[in-house]
Design goal:
By secondary structure, this protein is an alpha/beta fold. 43% of the residues lie in helices and 16% in strands. α1 crosses α11 and α3 crosses α10. The structure holds pyridoxal-5'-phosphate. Pyridoxal-5'-phosphate binds next to α3. This is Threonine aldolase.
Length: 341
């Protein structure tokens, strides 16, 4: 099977498994796990920030930051399709006590001109603005990149209002590689942010939260309260260190494979796909009059898994376990399904 449902489906390589097996471990609640300490230091350095914290998942990374940065009852401004509102089962409202002020952006992106008029006045009894939150890259927005220019404008607005700019960087390294950005520039623009090791980077588990020392201390306490403080977790941190050392630059291959899929489809089935929209590793395909469910069932029969994002919208995500040949083959098979009488 060629599995293009998500970049979360990657399996650890032999080298990742070896790194995990060789990990030196200790009790991380005592801060005695050398792999975790090294991972956190390396990540903080890479982004030019004070500190980083290893957490079990992207959802927990966002949650501990919402708790550390935002007063319960305040509003988190984000895009209408953001992961934090769409896919986290109400966690932000339930566990961080925030409400979301959602704004329709373009391909999941916020822009300062969209956000400014939606910030409520800073006076009682208006709901307080607690944070502006953005995804880099956007998930439901199809892997679009905000980029530093937009983010700097949003950070200036956040500073003006005295609130943090929070980054959900589940796929931050896709943006870094695609745009050739220095990670330190992202480190500078976000007040605090998280990124995932277990998406395209290919680690089995884990995310990192990055920010100022006081924010990371608070996030550490919230991780504990949420039950996310782990013990001999160096076996997982070792996988994270390995993928950060070996799997970052290769994300460019995933982006090239996504472009190949888009170009093949746009050529074979005009109107099905816009290659100009493929900025990273996500491809959206319009199935026209064919129901996405039917297209997916036929694709599965042909050996390809993809996801439905709407009644007539299919999503393909490239990653570590998808070769250039797989990508080409999947695109040809999908084109056949879309054009079959
Ligand atoms: C933008 C974004 N944020 C957060 C997450 C959550 O990550 P996890 O499923 O590891 O908790 C995801 C997962 O796909 C994501 O795409």
């Amino acid at each position: 099977m060629i599995d293009l449902r998500s970049d979360t489906v990657t399996r650890p390589t032999e080298a990742v498994r070896r790194a995990m097996a060789a990990a030196e471990v200790g009790d991380d609640v005592y801060r005695e796990d050398p792999e975790v300490e090294a991972l956190q230091e390396e990540v903080a350095d890479r982004f030019g920030r004070d500190a980083a914290l290893f957490v079990p998942s992207g959802v927990m990374g966002t949650l501990v930051l919402l708790r550390a940065l935002v007063e319960p009852g305040a509003e988190v401004v984000c895009e209408s399709d953001a992961h934090v509102v769409a896919y986290e089962a109400g966690a932000g409202a339930l566990h961080a006590g925030v409400q979301f002020r959602t704004i329709d952006g373009e391909r999941g992106r916020l822009d300062v001109d969209l956000v400014r008029p939606r910030l409520r006045p800073p006076t009682f009894p208006y709901t307080a603005v607690g944070a502006i939150s953005v995804e880099e890259t956007t998930n439901r927005g199809g892997g679009a990149i905000h980029g530093l220019e937009r983010l700097r404008a949003l950070r200036a607005l956040a500073d003006e209002r005295g609130v943090p700019l929070h980054g959900d960087g589940a796929r931050l390294f896709n943006a870094i590689v695609a745009a050739g950005t220095d990670p330190r520039e992202y480190g500078e623009v976000f007040t605090a942010f998280s990124f995932c090791l277990s998406k395209g980077l290919g680690a089995p588990v884990g995310s990192l939260v990055v920010g100022d020392a006081d924010v990371i201390d608070a996030a550490r306490a919230w991780r504990r309260r949420f039950g996310g403080a782990m013990r001999q977790v160096g076996v997982l941190a070792a996988a994270g260190r390995h993928v950060l050392a070996h799997h970052v630059e290769r994300l460019a291959d995933d982006h090239a494979n996504a472009r190949t899929i888009a170009a093949t489809l746009a050529d074979a089935v005009p109107g099905s796909c816009d290659p100009d929209e493929v900025e990273t590793n996500i491809v959206y395909v319009d199935t026209a009059s064919r129901p996405a469910a039917e297209v997916l069932a036929r694709l599965r029969d042909a050996g390809v898994l993809a996801g439905a994002m709407g009644e007539h919208l299919v999503r393909l995500v490239t990653h570590l376990d998808v070769s250039a040949d797989d990508a080409e083959r999947a695109a040809v098979l999908l084109a056949t399904v879309l054009t079959d009488k």
